[in-house]
Amino acid sequence: MEYMSQEGYDKLVAELHQLECVDLPQVREAIAEARDKGDLSENFEYHAAKREQGRLLSRIRFKQRVLANARVLDTTRLTAESVQLLCKVEMTNMANNSRMAYTIASPHEANIREGKISVKSPIAEALLGKKVGDVVKVQVPAGMLTLRIESICLGG
Q1: pTM score
Q2: For 4-51, how does the pLDDT look when each residue is reduced to its tens digit (9 = 90+)?
Q3: Contact 87, 102 (CB under 8 A)
Q4: Residue ranges of the alpha helices (H) in the chain?
């Protein structure tokens, strides 16, 4: 079971709809056109379209599995007392006094450009359950980070 926000769930549903109702019919049409051109053994367009169809069907099955196991979190039941999924955490890197803020998101919603890190990332795993003022040591690929939690708020 994977917990996620309503926004993330809706985005996955829209992506699945796009794949099933727009992209897949286009690929099937391309296969039919390529098949009409004759000899399939040396027909590059046919083989490329078949590969694309396989890739799309794989993505569709993956998204269907994610949605089947997804549970939308009831944000009214969340509190900002400690770090948890869908919380925005502001912290200070104790080594250089730089501040950073991340929202803890499901792996399917993680996007560093939007400031959303996966709940399964080393930083998020170290922060889960901690409170404002706690100092956390995190092993990351670049070395050991020491972070102090400055604030926790809901809704990212």
Answers
A1: 0.74
A2: 888 889 999 999 999 999 999 999 999 898 888 877 777 788 889 999
A3: no
A4: 6-18, 24-36, 44-69, 122-127
